[in-house]
Amino acid sequence: MRMTNKIALVLGGASGIGFAIAQRLAAEGAAVVLTGRRQGDVDAAVARIGGSAEGIAADASDQDGLERIFGTMRDRHGRIDALVYNAGISEPGGLADSTSEHFDRHFAVNTRGPLLAMQAAEPLMAAGGAALFIGSVAGVKGLPSHAAYAATKAALRSYVRSWTTELAARGVRVNVLSPGPTDTKMFASVDADARAFITSQIPLQRLARPEEVAAAALFLLSEDASYITGVDLQIDGGGVQI
Fold first, then answer.
1. Is 227 in the active site?
2. pLDDT by residue (tens digit) across 112-152?
3. pLDDT tens, 184-195?
C-alpha cells in the first residue's frame, strides 16, 4: 500500500494507460480522481475502480476544463500528492501533408495542456509530492508519419527538465514516463501487418501491457523513487535502447 493517505489526480485516466495507472494507484491506497472528456467514459472508469475513486468530465487540454478540474481538487481535497498527465492525441502526418491546424492541434493537447496543468497544479502540490507526465519513445526516435506527435513529446521532455529545477526547492519531483507501443484500444486500430512489423522491432517481441506501464508509474510516484527527479523512464521492451 505505497500510496496510502495520498491524493492522486490522473488527467486522461478514463481509458488505456491512464486508466491502468489510476487503477493501480487506487489499489495501492490512494484516493484517486480521474478525468476524461466524456461523462460516460469517466463514470464507467470510476465504477470499475470502485472504492473512493472520483471522476471529473472535462477536457484536460482546455483552460476552462483545467480550471474546473483544479478548482474541484482545491475545494474537495485541498492538495495533490501525485499528479499524472496522460491526455494526448496522435494523428498521422508527414512533412508533405502537415498543416498548421495539424501542428496546432497536437501542440495544444500534448504540450500546452501539460504546461497549463502544471501551472494549475503547482499551488496544490504537497511537499514530497510527485508529478508524472506520460511521454513516448517517439520523443527520442524519429517517426516519419507522426512527426508532430514526436515533436510534442520531445518538447514535453524539455519542459520537465525545467520544471524539475523550479520545483525541487519545494520538494516536488517531476518525471516523464515514456512507453513504447502498448496494447491498448488505440493500438488495436493498427492493421495486422503494421502491428507485426512494430512488434518485430522490439527485443522482447511483444507490446507493453498497460499494467506494466502502470507499475512503472507507481514506482515514480511513490516514496520508492524519493531521490529520482527529472528522468525520462522508457518502458519499451528495449525498442530504443539498442
1. no
2. 999 999 999 999 999 999 999 999 998 988 777 889 999 99
3. 877 777 778 878
pTM over 0.90: yes
Neighbours of 38 (CB within 10 A): 11
CATH code where residue 100 lies: 3.40.50.720
Per-residue pLDDT at 197: 87
Structural domain includes residue 169: yes
φ, ψ at 78 (rounded to 5°): 80, -10
**Do 206 and 148 meet the contact criterion of CB atoms below 8 Å apart?**
no
pLDDT in tens, 157-201: 999 999 999 999 999 999 999 999 898 877 777 778 878 888 898
- For the chain, the domain total comes to 1
Residue 152 inside a domain? The answer is yes
The three cell numbers of residue 174 are: 517531476
